[in-house]
Write a structure and sequence with these properties.
This protein is α/β, with parallel strands linked by helices. The protein has one domain: Survival protein SurE-like phosphatase/nucleotidase (Stationary-phase Survival Protein Sure Homolog, Chain: A, 3-Layer(aba) Sandwich), CATH 3.40.1210.10. The protein has a 9-stranded mixed sheet, with helices on both faces. A two-stranded antiparallel ribbon has the order 9-10. α1 links the parallel β1 and β2. The radius of gyration is 20 Å and the shape is globular.
Amino acid sequence: MKPLILVTNDDGYRSEGIQHLAARLATFGEVFIVAPEEERSAVSHALTVRDPVRLKKISEKIFAVHGTPADCVILAIRAVLPRRPALVVSGINHGRNLGDDIMYSGTIAGAREACYLDLPAFAVSQQTDGPEPRFELAARFASHLAERVIAAGLPDGVFLNVNVPNLSCPLGIRWTHQGLRISRSSLSECPDPRGNKFYWIGEEFRGKDVGQEEDSDYDAIENGYISITPLQRDQTSYKSLRSPLARELAASLDGI
């Protein structure tokens, strides 16, 4: 029996990236696509809890969800797939997901939700700067990685964030740590025809050297390497548990 693989994303089930990814994974696995009906970029790990989540069957193994990437994974596991998948792959995202962007990314959230459900998972994103994105290269690498993750597994509570540079031949593969976001949120104010204000949230570049620490995800991509960053569901700062403030606050309730 072929391994069952769930594919999702945040760009929508029609996106070029997810089509390349699913086709490549189908060379060795049974692939189901359960992805948003429309683009849901930057929704992070949002769940739809105040409205019904609607599921539309597009074909035998393609389903569109009127919801977020995290919704998609939950519906796939609970209502669509014939059995638990051997792997969940989220992508291929149109644009890289590096540094602090992992907190905003719906693509990353798809893999994280799978991790919450105790399933091996990774997200894969394609750098889109420069020439036309080379989704086929990213799909080939994702398939290569998928076979190995299915065979070897991942540590408990760990999922992977993969970014592929927009090159015909990357220089290699680097295991990296999460860098710092090279941009920060900006706000543009505009008037509507009635004189009321509305706003666009965007990004502004912070500087050439931000996020470029050695062995970071940004450093790998900027130097032409595929970046693999292991992420974990436990976000506890263990160093802070041993800080002077922690010791002071744990000592006594006197004076409160």
